[in-house]
Amino acid sequence: RIDELKVHCPNKSLGCEWVGELGSLYRHLSQNSVEGECQFVTVACPYDCSRSFKRRRLMNHKAMDCLSRPFTCQYCNYKAAYTKVTNEHWAICKKYPMECPNKCGESVIERQHL
After folding, report:
1. What is the pTM of this model?
2. Is 9:18 a contact under the CB 8 Å cutoff?
3. What number of CA atoms fall less than 13 Å from residue 109's CA on the CB side?
4. Among candidates 18, 8, 66, which has minimal Cα distance to 39?
5. What is the maximum alpha-carbon separation in the chain?
6. Which of 11, 25, 98, 103 has the fewest CB atoms within 10 Å of its CB?
7. Does residue 113 carry a pLDDT above 90?
């Protein structure tokens, strides 16, 4: 059967060392960021940032760099995109630590207690 022929990944020149059956090549190259195996395939970020990366770089982007990644406010556990939490929510978060307006030196007063 033709599906059983041994083939190299088309991304061999980029560094992929995969060798497998032709019938498995589609799954190996899948552009679905979760299902695919080839680390040299360009895949879209699953969040709303509209950026694409080689799969081997996507994990770091999703965890550290994507401004649209899910993020939780460490003060009140509000969940939203990273930029929404850090740019909008922290400005109104009732548990966000504030410096005392009386300059007493206390810097861990929650906004709700001012």
Report:
1. 0.74
2. yes
3. 14
4. 18
5. 80
6. 103
7. no
Residue 42 sits at the vertex; the CA angle it makes with 44 and 63, to the nearest 5 degrees, is 55
Extract the tokens encoding 19. 């060798």
**Tens-place pLDDT, residues 22-54:** 999 999 999 776 668 999 999 999 998 999 999
Cβ neighbors of 76 (< 8 A, separation 6 or more) are 93, 94, 95
Element (H, E) at 86: none
CA distance 9 to 61: 24
> Under a CB-based contact definition with an 8 Å cutoff, are residues 62 and 47 in contact?
yes
CA-nearest of 65, 55, 58 to 18 is 55
Strands (E), 45-114: 52-54, 70-72, 79-81, 97-98, 109-110
Tokens of 16: 């992929």
- Which residues, 6+ apart, have CB-to-CB distance to 85 below 8 Å? 71, 72, 73, 78, 79
